[in-house]
Amino acid sequence: MAIKEEKSTTKELLLDESEEKEVKEENLTVSEDEGFTSSEKKLDEKISKDIIDITDEKSLEKGSENYTGADITVLEGLEAVRMRPGMYIGSTSITGLHHLIWEIVDNGIDEALAGFCDTISVDINEDNSITVTDNGRGIPVDTVDKTGISAVETVYTKLHAGGKFGLTSGYKVSGGLHGVGASVVNALSEWLEVTVYRNGGEYFIRFENGGSKTTHLKRVGDSDKKGTKVTFKPDPLIFRETTEFSYETIKNRIRQMAFLNKSVRFILTDKRVEPNKVRDFKFDGGIKEYVSYINKNYTPLSDHVFYCEGAQTFTENDKNMDIVVEVAFQYITQDNYNIYSFCNNVSTGNGGTHLDGFYLALNRVFNNIARKLSILKDKDKERFSNEDCRKGITAVISVKHPNPEYEGQTKGKLGNAEVKKIVSNVFGAHLERFFTEEKQEALSILNKVRYNYDNRLKLAAYEESMKKKSGLELTNLPGKLSDCSSSNPEECELFIVEGNSAGGSAKQGRDPKIQAVLPLRGKILNVQKAQDHKIYENAEIGSMIKAIGGGFGDSFDVTKIRYHKVIIMTDADVDGSHIRILLLTFFNRFMKPLIENGYVYIAQPPLYKVEYKGKAYYAYNDYQLAVIRKELDLKNNYPFQRYKGLGEMDPDQLEETTMDPKVRKLVRITIEDANIADELFTELMGEEVAPRNEFLSENAKYVKNLDI
Question: Fewer CB near the terminus (10 Å): N or C of the chain?
Fold first, then answer.
């Protein structure tokens, strides 16, 4: 029985003057301390009582004008970086290649955060080298006492050296605090050049072969400019997969940085094409414009985008630190939610204390005001959950912290305990004010949240009734799953296969100890468009949820999954590609940790088979087929087989080419930036047609083989 979608029956009440006064003056039902541990509550004595309502956060972030070589701290070669580059940039794949750009761009952004830079340029040069230019103070050129060489040489040749350590730092806020960025880029480059404009002069130094300087820093002329220009060419001995940069990847990241740093101009130029491709990004509205940009693919509940900024002072070891908070959000009519968090411009894909503080304030204020307006009538039983408040929201939370602490090497989660309380205080105060000043807007949002609340209860009741009717629990494995005998998730693999024919071959060709097979019947729902109850009712999606075993959505627990390899195995044609995208869209929205932990793979079945003298040769693309024919000295008319689908392979062939761990080819799916990945999924798989058409128009020229 399908759940019928119903409109909320909540009365649209407006606040009159007496009610408005009541909301302001009455004690709130939910305490502001609710949601904090005892140790977190003790932080109150270190946090100032005043919320600093700021209009220009740069006044709190501005670094010292007196930025010299004395500010460069050495913590101690580069040979270690070349030996183990993955420790510093994650990998030597295309992801690690682009990481080099972010390290240099971040230095320019740090200058902007310090208040000395308003323009950053990134050029992709004809030879696939990169030039990053900023108009900041310029790296100091005087000598660092501890190293005996110039500050420029120190920064680019010594690990853990930079102007971002110590109490007299040249920066108050910085995205990169490890001091390895510039030196790591130098270590992994074929050559690197630095030009500094400072003190009325132009200074130059060049490094080659992974950081070996060709000469000391020299003054090469006079200049009235200020700033730093860095050009580097990645070393192909390190980046063996590719040294070719992706314009789209760089463009998306640069645009995100422009949103997060309002009024800072970012210019991207691709000089590899004629005419040069140039994009100029500058957003005076900052993250408020970012929310509007994300929601361009959705239908907003209203045109208004909530925005607030403020700060509180935190005292630690007798030192005062101003923690700056920015929040912007807007609700959409759909059920999707997109919540992005950042600290010092670093994307915190796994959230952290700033996100916890956001949820606390959102939930507290929504519940309090809803009770005042009788939208929630039974204060003992009715209460909005985080899930109710989240559905339909697009939000960006950005904090600036002088001394951020991250959990893990990837900076994916912010750990500073004081941030939770400060974000809750700053955001909560502005949100309460908003609810009393923007009456119609507030009620529109509360009605949406009330609908989410009612729908959640209906869905829970529906699932319970279906369990009773069928006599099955949600944890029961689907009947069409051919499971493996091992119970060790680390060695177990789940093949999600397109169609019963291919599923039959896969079941016979698998290793039954460690390989399970789940055949799908046709294409699953596009979950980016479908309503939640339609998703829950879909049989194919239900089978995947049960088979994988970690739940789904907000309750998904990656520690409970039954397989550490979830392998999508579809035909190598247009339909197969479409099914892969639909599955990845589902995983990205409802099981994102599965992708983030590297548990999702794409199987690579061959396209061609050539039989010669009793032996089979497989090719995965046209180039490999040409190589096989050349090496075997085959005539042009020598026959070969082109597979139209996995169902054409017998079990032995499927095992030999696609399932045997010793010989198969798998592609692991990774997400470099979860926020940008979410935007791309929304753009390509969402309801709005215009963004999808724009993407196809821009990228159609890259299509080499069209299978229609």
Answer: C
